[in-house]
Prior knowledge:
This protein is an alpha/beta fold. It has a single domain (5-251), classed as Aldolase class I (TIM Barrel, Alpha-Beta Barrel). It contains 8 helices and 10 strands. The protein has helices spanning 55-63, 87-98, 114-120, 135-142, 150-163, 182-192, 213-221, 245-251, and strands at residues 5-11, 15-20, 29-30, 44-45, 72-75, 102-106, 125-129, 167-173, 196-200, 229-231. Helix 1 (55-63) packs parallel to helix 2. The chain is globular, with a radius of gyration of 17 Å. Iron/sulfur cluster binds at residues 28, 30, 32-34, 37, 39, 42, 79-80, 107.
Amino acid sequence: MRSVIYGPVSSWRLGRSLGIDLLSTRGKTCSFDCVYCQLGRTTNQLAERREFISIEELEKALDSIRGIGADYATFSGVGEPTLASNLGQAIELTRATLHLPIAVLTNSSLMPRDDVRQALAQADLVVAKVDAPTEKLFHKINRPYVECAFDDILQAIQVFRKNYSGKLALQMMFIEANMDYAAEMAKLAKELSPDEIQINTPLRPCSVQPLSPEEIAIIRRQFTGLSGVVTVYEAKRPDVAPLDLEATLRRRPRL
Length: 255
Ligand code: SF4
């Protein structure tokens, strides 16, 4: 049987986080190929939703860890979780089985779809990625495979924000390519009105250098006046240990 559950792992954003990978594919399955991705290049380029792990398979995996303690059960893993067409059902089942708050980490690419926003609305916390203030920079940093325009994604986050009763966090990853756009990013964050703004830089090994604490502090100043701003360097529990994809997969319990 494929491994669906991993951790709990320590996360600066989520505390003790029990990972659920509804994709569980060999190699990364994503609608983006971000230049800073810690998982390497995207091997399975996908923009359409489909079922990877059945609900029956997830049910068996969850049954074997009933009673486990964690701050969140987090839908993440080796790729983009909203590509799983049964995400909504999986959230419902996980909450009913583990009685834990549910988080989803998404790259936001499929949020223009009604069915994706409906599935995400079932989570207690949605962390949505926004790394650029313009279409051009979006393509440079996130290298998307999705057809929809960058503005459609921003509009979809806004629609989601209006109707969502849970906690919405924006994750903004800063690297050299967008470090001079902090004022535009802060303006965007203000418009999207999330509960939390996570200012990040890639501290795990990847092909892009992280920004220094001083550079992140300068970026942080552009967000003055906005509430719920947190940076990776200020966080008490930085999850900066190198993450190796194969090691991550090996650590998962064989269920
Ligand atoms: S969205 Fe996440 S998993 Fe996909 S390429 Fe970007 S960083 Fe990697």
